[in-house]
């Protein structure tokens, strides 16, 4: 059956067929042929699907397939976006870019070559090697590394700064003097902490890892101190007696 049924008109169709679908479209609609198995069915659309461009004419407006390397196009010979693996340049999709230009995988386009600070690059946004004297970080080249990064002259890269990290303080030691804890009134107590992470050359240095403070103790004699004094006294008296007898 061929005619202008209400179903046709609601879909932008002017005339249609039970077998071939839409045969003609209303003004401002495009005729697009969709393949279903071994036959093609006409469909009326306000705009052509991806991979096709519209050809308008007073008699019939149709959708025409873009070139195989194009994702979308303005005309058959003027691409506006390329398929993966091709790069757009002056309306054409190419597998490689002309001299002085590099490809952008994100845009699928040929873009201006390496930035001035790059010696080599993947594309205009990502350097793989910087010019002498510059440091590389995430595809960019720097005269001075950004905050929280420091220059690595061996790799010529900006590397993250590493700051010193220390553990908790130990308990204060017993009050002592010259290694003894008795026989004095004033002494010192000490405490320490461990370095958990040593800093990089430009990182924050380590704080003090030991502290000393003065302390007072109740003065007491060391154990055995009195007997030792008595022995020393007897030894001194015996020495004097021996000396006198020799005279």
UniProtKB/TrEMBL annotation:
Keywords: Disulfide bond, Glycoprotein, Heparin-binding, Secreted, Sensory transduction, Signal, Wnt signaling pathway. One of its GO terms (molecular function) is heparin binding. SUPFAM superfamilies: Growth factor receptor domain (SSF57184), TSP-1 type 1 repeat (SSF82895). The keyword Metal-binding does not apply. Residues 11-110, 114-158 form the R-spondin Fu-CRD domain. Residues 222-238 have a biased composition (Basic residues). Residues 164-217 form the Spondin-like TSP1 domain. One of its GO terms (biological process) is Wnt signaling pathway. Pfam families: Furin-like_2, TSP1_spondin. It comes from the Eukaryota. Residues 222-247 are annotated as: Disordered. It is found in: Secreted. GO terms for cellular component: extracellular region. Transmembrane segments: none annotated. InterPro entries: Furin_repeat (IPR006212), Growth_fac_rcpt_cys_sf (IPR009030), R-spondin (IPR051514), Rspo_Fu-CRD_dom (IPR043601), TSP1_rpt (IPR000884), TSP1_rpt_sf (IPR036383), TSP1_spondin_dom (IPR044004). Gene3D superfamilies: Hormone Receptor, Insulin-like Growth Factor Receptor 1, Chain A, domain 2, Thrombospondin type-1 (TSP1) repeat. Belongs to the R-spondin family. This is R-spondin 3 homolog. It comes from Nothobranchius pienaari. The lineage of its organism: Eukaryota, Metazoa, Chordata, Craniata, Vertebrata.
